[in-house]
Design goal:
43% of the residues lie in helices and 13% in strands. The chain has 375 residues and is of the alpha/beta class. It folds into two domains: 256 residues, Aldolase class I (TIM Barrel); 102 residues, no CATH class. An eight-stranded parallel β-barrel has the order 3-4-5-6-7-8-9-10, surrounded by seven helices. Strands 1-2 form a two-stranded antiparallel ribbon. It is elongated. The model has no long low-confidence stretch (mean pLDDT 96). It binds flavin mononucleotide and iron/sulfur cluster (SF4) (2 copies). Flavin mononucleotide (FMN) binds next to β4.
Length: 375
């Protein structure tokens, strides 16, 4: 695991994620056996979805009756417990995708199964029966209820993920509410909104972001990772060949480049993390409006970067544009001054990018110090 932890410095529910690829749930399909058979190429699996209280079980029965594939159990908690046990020792971060009509339905599962798994609120399902009982996508249309469900689960001391379709409600509002209520993960079906939506969410909350929908090529995976996603997930395309290809490609990329989800430069459409590559705020470019938008003064931005790099490989760089590698561009942008500085210090480009990643974490911590409504 040590190599993987360095490759992918990513944890969910306090557990290292061995590769930033997840299995997204498909009701009636994604269970422990399905996840085990793909465990070599994924880091997390969201089993289900499971209907967990009376109204949603009734809805699932009606849906199954009209031919939809569903998991329907008289004793869903017992069934889920068996699935969780079947994945012990698999090395996967396990999540349970749950449909409930009230916070109580989610909480009862968490109390029975405990903190070893992630509880994913299914705010995604748009089947009329599920929405009709106030579950699935109904929660996106009633953000107060969604927030209440997140808060109730988080109060049980468990890790909470929220799965939803982008573009259905006010995505930034949903994200902020999930953050302030204690969610750890946002699992976002981007529909056809693509990477601009993931960037918008990255610029809104510090939660772990899983990008979903038709991400079956490495180009598309990198597109998501370079605009703020921490992971990608697959449902329909989660065959072994595709998963193995993505897993191998992202491992190679991380080993080569040092930062598996490095952002683009801000002026090339990068998200807030790309402030790690930005210059001193001295010219007319997207930096100054971005600082204004996130409420970081120029002086604080300068102090934050200089303080964060003190004692690191980024501190030096007298021959670079602004006198320190703190202000230097991505390793992929050609620059002989930066490269000379790195060569003289015996620092590889990979180490440089790893240091930039740590700098971006410090910036993120400052930008997202306080969830909305809790100051
Ligand atoms: C047959 C099927 C069942 C699904 N069931 C669920 C579900 O129970 N809960 C959920 O959150 N998403 C469910 N989804 C949505 C997927 O997890 C995923 O968001 C969607 O298929 C888009 O991702 P993809 O392009 O990788 O398939 C289901 C999708 C399919 C195709
Ligand atoms: S500060 Fe530099 S890297 Fe950042 S947006 Fe401006 S020109 Fe681009
Ligand atoms: S020295 Fe090179 S890498 Fe550093 S800020 Fe100037 S142009 Fe960018």
């Amino acid at each position: 695991m040590a190599d993987e932890e360095e490759r992918f410095p990513l944890q969910i529910n306090g557990t290292p994620v061995r590769t930033p690829i997840a299995l997204a749930s498909m009701a009636g399909v994604v269970d422990a056996a399905y996840a085990r058979s793909r465990a070599a190429h994924v880091g997390a699996a969201f089993l289900g979805g499971y209907a967990v209280d009376e109204p949603t079980i009734a809805a699932a029965l009606t849906m199954a009756g009209r031919g939809r594939s569903e998991f329907v159990f008289d004793d869903p908690i017992g069934a889920m417990q068996r699935e969780v046990v079947a994945l012990e020792g698999s090395g996967l971060v396990v999540g349970l995708n749950l449909r409930a009509a009230s916070p109580r339905g989610f909480v009862d599962v968490a109390r029975s199964i405990g903190p070893s798994v992630v509880y994913e609120i299914d705010a995604h399902c748009r089947q009329p029966e599920m929405v009709g009982v106030g579950a699935g996508e109904a929660l996106v249309h009633a953000p107060d209820r969604l927030e209440e469900a997140v808060r109730a689960l988080a109060a049980e001391g468990v890790s909470v993920s929220v799965k939803f379709r982008a573009g259905v409600g006010d995505d930034r509002e949903i994200a902020r509410r999930c953050w302030s209520a204690g969610a750890e993960v946002l699992h976002v079906d981007l529909m056809d909104l693509g990477y601009p939506k993931i960037r918008e969410l990255r610029n809104t909350v510090p939660l772990t972001l899983i990008a979903n929908n038709s991400i079956t090529t490495f180009d598309r995976m990198r597109e998501m990772l370079s605009h703020g996603a921490d992971m990608v997930s697959l449902a329909r395309g989660a065959n072994e060949r595709t998963l193995a290809g993505l897993d191998a490609a992202i491992a190679r990329y991380a080993d080569d480049q040092g930062w598996y989800n490095s952002p683009k430069q801000l002026c090339r459409g990068g998200d807030v993390r790309s402030l790690a590559f930005c210059c001193m705020p001295v010219k007319s470019c997207p930096l100054i409006p971005t600082l204004e938008k996130i409420g970081l003064s120029r002086d604080r931005y300068i102090a934050l970067k200089l303080d964060s790099v003190r004692g690191t490989v980024l501190e030096g760089g007298a021959q670079t544009c602004f006198g320190s590698l703190a202000w230097c561009c991505k390793a992929s942008s050609p620059c002989m001054f930066r490269d000379m500085t790195l060569a003289q210090a015996g620092v590889s480009k990979k180490e440089y990018m790893q240091a930039k990643r740590r700098l971006s974490q410090q910036i993120m911590r400052e930008v997202f110090a306080v969830p909305p409504g809790t100051a």
